[in-house]
Write a structure and sequence with these properties.
Low-confidence stretches: none
CATH architecture: Up-down Bundle
Shape: elongated
Strand order of the largest sheet: 1-2
Number of strands: 2
Bound molecules: nickel (II) ion
Mean pLDDT: 94
Order of helices and strands: HHHEEH
Structural class: mainly alpha
Length: 149
């Protein structure tokens, strides 16, 4: 978990920049690539990344929500991500201090310290980025940014 806002801020800057790179490489054609019949499309996973950041508002952070509907273009999803990832970071830096990270919130029946939630936000995003790069290959995309080499 994170115990210092500054540590989260530094890591979020790096991690969200990687996600931006990936989302900006997405093509509209690739958005419909599915994991498997009945499972998410690449576009849905990309949009899920935006919405999962918005979920941080349930930890008591206040920042603007993304648009309600999933955008139809890859560029619009990337733009929503760029906005909300910046807004969330700004909210953490201005509305929380290091002590806030130790506060516990009840989420889905579990007890979560805010510092745990911030850590999970980063891990969760990395998990879905991995899915996205596979789907981007399956969609025939040639230009896929390298993530961690
Ligand atoms: Ni998820």
């Amino acid at each position: 978990m994170f115990t210092k806002v500054a540590d989260f801020a530094a890591e979020w800057e790096q991690e969200s920049a990687i996600t931006v790179k990936l989302l900006e490489a997405l093509t509209d054609e690739a958005l419909n690539q599915r994991v498997a019949e009945g499972h998410w499309t690449l576009g849905e996973i990309a949009w899920h990344l935006v919405q999962s950041i918005n979920y941080m508002s349930s930890m008591g952070l206040s920042f603007p929500a993304p648009q309600a509907e999933q955008p139809t273009s890859a560029a619009a999803i990337a733009a929503e991500y760029r906005a909300i990832s910046r807004e969330m970071l700004n909210a953490v830096m201005t509305q929380w201090d290091d002590a806030s990270l130790l506060e516990v919130k009840e989420i889905a029946g579990g007890q979560w310290r805010n510092g745990d939630s911030l850590r999970l936000t980063i891990t969760h995003q990395a998990h879905h980025r991995g899915q996205m790069t596979v789907l981007m290959r399956q969609a025939g995309m040639k230009e896929i940014p390298s993530i961690f080499g």
